Amino acid sequence: MLTLAIDTSTDNLGLALMESGQLRGEYNLSLKRQHSEKLLPLIEQIFELLGIQPRELNGVAVATGPGSFTGLRIGITTAKLLGRIFSIPVKGISTLEIMAAGIAEPYLLPLIDARRKRVYCSFYQNLRTANDNFLKEIYQPTAISIAELPELLSNYKEKEITLIGEKKKEVRRVLEANAFSTRLAEAESDLPRAAVLARLGENYFKTGQRDDIYQLKPAYLKKPQAEINWQQKYGNN
Amino acid sequence: MGVGKLKFRDKLKDESEDIYILALESSCDETAAAVNKNGLKVLANVVSSQVDLHKKFGGVVPEIASRKHLELLLPVIDQALAEAGIDFEDLDAVASTSGPGLVGGLLVTLTAAKTISLALNIPLIGVNHIAGHIYANFIANPEIKKPLLCLTISGGHTDLLYFEDLRGYKILGRTVDDAAGEAFDKISRFLGLGYPGGPAIEKAARAGNEMAVDFPRADLGDSYNFSFSGLKTAVMNYVNNEEQRGNELKINDLAASFQKAVVDSLTANLLQAVEKYDVESVVLSGGVAANQRLRSYIEEKLEEHNLKLYYPPLELCTDNAAMIGAVAYYQYLERDFAPLSISADPSLKL
Amino acid sequence: MDNSSYSIITNSPAETAKFGRDLAQFLEVPALILLKGELGTGKTLIIKAAAAASGYQGNVTSPTFNLIQEYSGEQEIIHMDLYRLDRTEELLEIGFEDYLTREALIFIEWPELALPLLPADFLFINIEKISAQKRKITVYAEGKRSSLLIERLNQKC
């Protein structure tokens, strides 16, 4: 079982090849807005260096965001075509889930910088089973102002929350000022690691889970959970 | 990265063999796929339009277009292959528009073409969308005699070209400001005639008098260059003046007079070139080439020179991928391939 | 409103444009500037003047995109006109979230529908028509960065 992992959702370009539980290769490169130029040459290169032919692939796992829509479409298009040409399964996986799945702690808050004092985040509880970590999604991916995080997480003040990713230190300051207990992920876990994506993909494929390549699309965010209501102040004066 | 390229270079074909190319296009608001055999023979030409999606916004919304391209990508490819009766393995090359257009949209089919190139180990060809519109003519009229002049006009460009044969061209003139189609869109919106502007103006103009208002025609001296921003301003000033005087606007007359001014400017440069260059035919292309008034006026003028005017049939005037496949074939023969690192260029020029 | 606002009366389109140029001097990416005012009060004029002062040369032969236009000068400028939108959800379809992540100056005309989706730092410019030529322009700020900008406007203009 040979799985290719592709992540173009953030500034990190992630690529990994996993063969039946064994990681064959992994790229995580911080390439701002160069995914279009770099993705396919790097896929060609990783295959060449490892002496593997693209047609040997058995599945493709692809990150679906949140992240840059243009970046996401590059990775997802590549996954769709590989799935179509080789008739192999494709699975789209949330970028935040990839970040959370890299860490074995009970409460996980993966963060991606959404600029302007906002983050994309989701909140997971890690229910450890005998074989694997199982992530339960408590809050689905959303874009939120950092200042609003204490309110979002108010039911979890008693728990130690592990902060992962960009802005983790800023988020920690805000949460701790509100009497939360937090710990910071190690630096190497702050990226959505391509190897983790490959592992998740392989696990999904093993249990027969796959996406319809005709329906697969980026995780375009729905309306934010917490809206700031400026309407009263500026909407009708 | 070169190793993969060398592999397929061994099995490249020449003109004596049949060459099948899958071509993709997503530069604006149509998602399209086509299969061409030997360039000008179109085995399948599938176009899925999103025009209705954008109508409400008075113009194409880049993000909405990109989302739709991603959604329609596989269905149009599947349909094109099915209609052509071939499979991925039968392809000799894959092509995509690489510009000009909206980056987000272009990247959808360009990335798809790159993936197909890598997966099947066949050459990748990046095609200029404007060249595509020109080659639509050669698909529709394979009998066109060379050398020829081509006037290519759309919302993004206005160029006058000279072709010795189908493998290359020389640029004689281009717009120094607005493109002709851009002027149509802006004036159409200004007159409240809607989007897209070309057909809207043409429709209104049919019921109007094109001699009603004498709008200025830009004269750029001996050059073959075009200019439309002065005309645009003149129309806006005229309307503002009329409104201030409380006169009722005759929209149809305005549309007709504006259209005639554009047609005159385009025709003047073309005729100047016809007199200088010894050509066998003249070709129109681009979205604005669909304008009937432009066609009939140029045809009338070319008759005096015993020259025939060619233009693509309506179904090839809108964005499509068959035209991209036609260009790609000549690039294939020239071994003009793109590396997997090619990116979309929103303002790619001819 | 409070001391976090700046007001100016302009007597002609030329003066309104000058306000746009002055404002541009104080803008730093990423900035979000909302403009509210009736049709023909000078919203676009202010944006064009600010864009020009921010290094945008202005000569594009690109198709017309009514809703969102991007200008690249010395810095990236995004100009949205939300007049044709009916629902806040439509903002998500046009990729509004994605635009907010850009390191750009973002100008928004007819911003009412965007208000629920905004981050906590922005400038709000209200333009009132006093007479045919005369405008009262008031700039409000939300957030620390934008409030600082108001202070500077008040000191220098």
TrEMBL record, chain A:
GO annotation (BP), single: tRNA threonylcarbamoyladenosine modification
Pfam family, one: TsaD
Gcp-like domain residues: 32-230
GO cellular component: cytosol
Record-linked InterPro entries: ATPase_NBD, Gcp-like_dom, T6A_TsaB
Protein name per UniProt: tRNA threonylcarbamoyladenosine biosynthesis protein TsaB
From TrEMBL, chain B:
GO terms (BP aspect): tRNA threonylcarbamoyladenosine modification
EC category name: transferase
Gene it is expressed from: tsaD
Cross-referenced NCBIfam families: gcp_kae1, T6A_TsaD_YgjD
Cofactor note: Binds 1 Fe(2+) ion per subunit.
Similarity annotation: Belongs to the KAE1 / TsaD family.
Catalytic activity: L-threonylcarbamoyladenylate + adenosine(37) in tRNA = N(6)-L-threonylcarbamoyladenosine(37) in tRNA + AMP + H(+)
Primary residence: cytoplasm
Gene Ontology MF annotations: iron ion binding; tRNA N(6)-L-threonylcarbamoyladenine synthase activity
Keywords: Acyltransferase, Cytoplasm, Iron, Metal-binding, Transferase, tRNA processing
Membrane-crossing residue ranges in chain numbering: none
Protein known as: tRNA N6-adenosine threonylcarbamoyltransferase
Record GO cellular component, one term: cytoplasm
Cofactor (UniProt): Fe(2+)
Automatic annotation (TrEMBL), chain C:
Domain of life: Bacteria
An annotated GO BP: tRNA threonylcarbamoyladenosine modification
SUPFAM superfamilies reported for this sequence: P-loop containing nucleoside triphosphate hydrolases (SSF52540)
Compartment annotation: Cytoplasm
Record's keyword terms, sorted: ATP-binding, Cytoplasm, Magnesium, Metal-binding, Nucleotide-binding, tRNA processing
Pfam family, one: TsaE
Cellular component terms (Gene Ontology): cytoplasm
GO molecular function, one term: metal ion binding
Family: Belongs to the TsaE family.
Protein name per its UniProtKB record: tRNA threonylcarbamoyladenosine biosynthesis protein TsaE
Organism: Halanaerobium kushneri
